[in-house]
């Protein structure tokens, strides 16, 4: 009769990372939802923190379909967090700018994400968190991700 005991075979790192990533992603999405934003809208605000960006550049930076970005910008604009204007140098282009309300929302996002990180990584020391960040960056660089 087969044993029902737990296998001692090692779990593949990719599988382990995917499982932990799904749990972390859910916690981050929940934290952002509490701030009234989605992951994509918070990424968009983060990109706009450096200053106005052309809509096409945002599409490229986020790696999304143009219609997906339009939906995010419509949402953010409806909340008063961003504004879009035609580029005076090229009327076919739109320039997206974060509003003062958007900057406030981004500060709130930073706070809820810091709290989520504290909960997610409570078992790690600050040095271990730094090491994990470096390792994840190394993996992302090797995979060609940004």
UniProtKB/TrEMBL annotation:
Cited Gene3D superfamilies: Winged helix-like DNA-binding domain superfamily/Winged helix DNA-binding domain (1.10.10.10)
Keyword Transcription attached: yes
Sections of the chain in a coiled coil: none
Annotated ranges, domain HTH marR-type: 1-141
InterPro entries (alphabetical): HTH_MarR-typ, MarR/SlyA-like, WH-like_DNA-bd_sf, WH_DNA-bd_sf
A Pfam family matched in the record: MarR_2
Alphabetical keyword list: DNA-binding, Transcription, Transcription regulation
Highest rank taxon of the organism: Bacteria
Record's protein name: MarR family transcriptional regulator
């Amino acid at each position: 009769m087969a044993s029902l005991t737990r296998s001692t075979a090692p779990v593949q790192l990719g599988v382990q990372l995917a499982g932990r990533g799904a749990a972390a992603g859910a916690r981050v999405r929940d934290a952002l939802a509490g701030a009234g934003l989605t992951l994509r809208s918070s990424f968009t605000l983060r990109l706009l923190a450096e200053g106005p960006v052309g809509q096409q550049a945002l599409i490229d930076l986020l790696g999304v379909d143009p219609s997906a970005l339009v939906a995010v910008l419509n949402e953010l604009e409806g909340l008063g967090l961003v504004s879009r204007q035609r580029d005076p140098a090229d009327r076919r282009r739109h320039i997206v700018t974060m509003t003062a309300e958007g900057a406030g929302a981004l500060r709130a996002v930073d706070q809820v994400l810091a709290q989520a990180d504290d909960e997610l990584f409570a078992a790690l020391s600050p040095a271990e968190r730094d090491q994990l960040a470096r390792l994840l960056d190394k993996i992302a660089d090797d995979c060609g991700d940004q």
